[in-house]
Amino acid sequence: MAGLGALEQVVHDRQMSRNRAKEKTALEERIGYRFADKTLLERALTHISALSGASRTNSYQRLEFLGDHVLGLIVSDMLYRAFPRADEGELSRRLADLVRKETCAEVARAMDLGSALRLGSSESNAGGRLRVTILADACEALIGAVYLDGGYAAARDFVHRFWSERMRKPLRALRDPKTMLQEWAQARGLPTPDYRELARTGPHHSPKFRVAVALADQPPAEGLGSSKRAAEQAAAAAMLERVGVSVDKTNG
User: Fold this and answer.
1) How far is C-alpha 111 from the chain's CA centre?
2) Catalytic residue among 42, 64, 97, 140
3) pLDDT tens-digit profile of 159-177?
4) Protein fold of 2-167
5) What are the tens digits of pLDDT across the range 130-151?
6) Domain range annotation of the chain
7) What's the fold here for domain 177-242?
8) I need a surface site. Which of 81, 82, 221, 240 has the fewest CB within 10 A?
């Protein structure tokens, strides 16, 4: 019986390996790039939860770091060429919109990247393949992997393929953190965020405010500012960062 169990495990492992190879090949077809070094692709698709205590360097985290900067450079070059009359402020706003986590996650969904990810069972069961932060990080890791495998030209072609159309869209209107947090909460059926002044310090002519914002199922987040409104905005920005939402910025 023990021998039969071992044989079944070998058959299962081989089938899983074949399925994994098919998933990666299908992804290569969807993104229009074939890797010479398949280990780079595998690493770009591996979440830390799938490593069972192995080194974090075997996950996509290092590639994500690289891909983030490669993406920023390529998109900056695309914007510089596409909008010759735009000033630095507009270019920075467009760049921030195109490299934000939500945009990277949209690109990941467009290429069905989630289905090819290698996740631990708990992360997979918790819906990790649909999570914005995971999709965005894996998308950046994939860019880093393409850059290492095929050089700058390959990475540039990859980014152009998935970002050119998005780049041509009208510039997204900036929203302040309080508005963004309220919209985020409403979209999930949560109560309106509650702001509370914790302290006011400093002289009357130059006060400093400390404010906390409370949101269902989240510990309070705090912010400091020279006015109560500024402190509320800082608290909202801190809460947004905690839940994985990029805050709109006037500069890149």
Assistant:
1) 15
2) 140
3) 999 999 999 887 765 678 9
4) Ribonuclease iii, N-terminal Endonuclease Domain; Chain A (1.10.1520)
5) 888 899 999 999 999 999 999 9
6) 2-167, 177-242
7) Double Stranded RNA Binding Domain (3.30.160)
8) 81
